[in-house]
Amino acid sequence: MTVTDDPTTQLPTPHGPFVEDDREAHSFRVHRSTMTSPEIHAMELERVFAHSWLYVGHESEIRKKGDYVRRPVGGRQVFMVRGRSGQVNVFHNTCTHRGAMVCRAERGNAKIFSCFYHAWSFNTDGELVGIPDRQAYGDDLDFGKLGLRPAAKVDSYRGFVFLSYDPDIVPLVDYLAGATEYLDLVVDAVEDAEIISGTNEYAINANWKLLAENSIDGYHAVSTHDTYFKYLVALGTDLAGGVQGTAKALGNGHAVLEYTAPWGRPVAKWEPLFGEGAREEIGRLRAELVAKHGEERASRMTDVNRNLLIYPNLVINDIMAVTVRTFMPVSADRMEITAWELAPSQEQPQLRQRRLDSFLTFLGPGGFATPDDIEALESCQQGFHSGGVEWNDISRGMARTPEANDEEQMRAFWRRWNEQMIGEAR
Ligand code: FES
Ligand SMILES: [Fe+2]
Q1: CATH code at 277?
Q2: What is the rounded average pLDDT for all residues in the chain?
Q3: What is the pLDDT of residues 69-119, one digit of tens each?
Q4: In this structure, are 278 and 383 located in the same domain?
Q5: Is 9 helix (H, G, I), strand (E, B) or coil?
Q6: Which residue, judged by its Cα, is nearest atom 4 of ligand 1?
Q7: Ligand 1 binding pocket, CB closer than 6 Å
Q8: Which end of the chain has fewer beta carbons closer than 10 Å to its terminal beta carbon, N or C?
Q9: 418 belongs to a structural domain
């Protein structure tokens, strides 16, 4: 047992148990060291992030050959670039000469990535195509082997690009398991989906798993986001129906909340927040979806909200906007978050504006939800360090068919996390 002055950094044993899952007693507990221990944070980087499929970006961010975006994925610098034959490449952002990052800008378009250190140059397929003073190396060195290194695995599903650092990981579609049904619902409802240019980037002084939990937590909505509900009522929204729905585990740690709720959705559900001017257009969009997918599926797309967690760190909130959010631990006590908005590429400017307003009103960094959630997560993190209590309780709904306000979706996340951390190497 590790013994330090801080009781929350003590592990129950060096290898857990981190999770106590007692289905007979309807009890599910997670040890708080999972949220605070630097040793567990280091283990996670290796056992979770190096052996999962991780979200890199959306194909629409790099529509033209040579378009690229640079970002950290799983704590490592990579960049995604549209190659010469139109394919999506993802490279480790490190020069094969002596290490400098060859992609220096956040985004742009380039035919060549020239390393600023000694000016080795690589094309968009990663091939080394330029070396100053080439003759200094003689004729025997194989420059064909000195191209940029692609991520071990890269694949995409419905426009969402993922990588894995594990060459032996299962195919992406198998990994996504039951989550594909929900990704399909999101994408089918958004004609030619594209990520709107621009990001929300912020950091929270809390463990990253608190945001995984929070993103699919129906239980907190009414208490934490009371101000937002009051705001909706003031605008004329009828909240009498409340929030009705289910929570589901989707396999491999993925989970979803699906529920009807009284707020408007830019995916064709009008509410007063969108303004009278949008009523007709939203009605037209809805009719189009019904014609294409039938009343039942169209209703699921338009009327039903989804908070989808793709294990370990991708969240798609298909609610009063369609937000794509990923987050990464910096340490046990801090994470960095990036969020984007997904929209139909040919959306009318007025509707696009209302979508963005709706996105920022609730989920933006200064919106009604995010600051409250950040406050809650940072409060939990500080609470853990207070000590005295060793375990979090995540048992809600174990004794019944789980509902949207239960905690089955979090248990799905934690069961997979526990398997990766102590049950198997990948
Ligand atoms: S480190 Fe890139 S050219 Fe030397
Ligand atoms: Fe929230």
Answers
A1: 3.90.380.10
A2: 91
A3: 999 999 999 999 999 999 999 999 999 999 999 999 999 999 999 999 999
A4: yes
A5: helix
A6: 118
A7: 95, 97-100, 115, 117-120
A8: N
A9: yes
- Do 214 and 80 sit in the same domain of this protein? no
Residue 27 lies in a domain: no
Percentage of the chain beyond pLDDT 70 is 95
Checking DSSP bridges between strand 160-164 and strand 314-318, what pairing results, if any?
A: unpaired
What ligand has the least distance to the C-alpha of 97?
1
Alpha-carbon distance of 64 to 172, in angstroms, equals 24
Position 19 scores a pLDDT of 96
Inside any domain, residue 366? yes
Q: What is the CATH number of the domain that holds 93?
A: 2.102.10.10
Residues 205 and 147 in one domain: no
99 CA closest ligand 1 atom index: 1
Q: Are residues 140 and 185 in the same domain?
A: no
Burial group, residue 4, by CB count within 10 angstroms (0-12, 13-18, 19+):
exposed
Residue 98 Cα to ligand 1 middle (Å): 5
How close is the Cα of 49 to the center of ligand 1, in Å?
28
Q: Give the ligand whose atoms come closest to the C-alpha of residue 113.
A: 1
Give, using CA atoms, the residue closest to atom 1 of ligand 1: 98
Nearest CA to ligand 1 atom 3: 118
CA angle at 218 for the pair 254 and 193, rounded to the nearest 5°: 55
Do 80 and 159 share a domain, yes or no?
Answer: yes
Q: Are 335 and 207 in contact (CB under 8 A)?
A: yes
Q: How many CB atoms sit inside 10 A of residue 176's CB? A: 25
Pocket test for ligand 1, best of 77, 95, 101 (most atoms within 8 A of CB): 95
286 lies in which domain range? 178-423
Same domain for 191 and 63, yes or no, is no
Number of domains, the chain: 2
Amino acid at 360: L
